[in-house]
From TrEMBL:
Keywords linked to the UniProt accession: DNA-binding, Phosphoprotein, Transcription, Transcription regulation, Two-component regulatory system
Organism in which the protein naturally occurs: Sphingobacterium phlebotomi
UniProt-recorded name of the protein: Response regulator transcription factor
GO CC annotations on file: cytosol; protein-DNA complex
UniProt-listed PROSITE patterns: RESPONSE_REGULATORY
Amino acid sequence: MRMIKCVLLDDELPMLGYLQALCRELENVEVVKSYNNPLKFLDDLDQLDFNTCVLDINMPGINGLELAKRLEGKAIIFSTAYKEYAAEAFDLDAVDYLRKPYRLERLEKAFSKAQVWLSNKGHASHIYVELNTNLGKSRMNTNDIAYIAVAENDRRDKEIWFKDGQTLLAKNITFDDILERFPRGRFCKINRKTVIALHAVSHYTTQWVSCELASHRKPIQFKLSEQYREQFVALLPG
């Protein structure tokens, strides 16, 4: 398992100290340095050896969202007491988003996501996959995919739906094979007939998952089966 070499930023010293204490409870997590001043962190940035950053959003001088734009190639875990920043945080491809006060099990989950992200980093080709489809060999960007469903005419085939409403028919492929070839942690099986892209999820309950397509006026709703519920919730950011 890859070692997390982490920098912590939080302008509230008691919260920063508590975060440091939680990190000491976790294996494979090394706190390289902690900062309560983001400008001081920027001054030191070029001298620091780290791969992950737990980054408070509300800080004086420069906020965490702006700071994250300068941390290309690092796994970013945002933290804040305010939920309204979540959408903007994930627009920056954050690994996770923590609500304060911090909890050990939730922090551990965030670092697990960071390990997956770091393992996939540098394999940009994993964003693109090539599958046998009804159009021949098709190369596709997995970030454009909303969901994948069992084809109506032949269950061995899978219908790939893109966020813009276009479709492709992947020929003679299993969901297990698709999940193995697609970026890890970004897609999840939610019932026997559907795999959903987590970035396309707009709403969910314990029974249903919804996603939005540009070609549909209303969100599309899928059943969330009990056997897949725990994994789905664990993979969701936040």
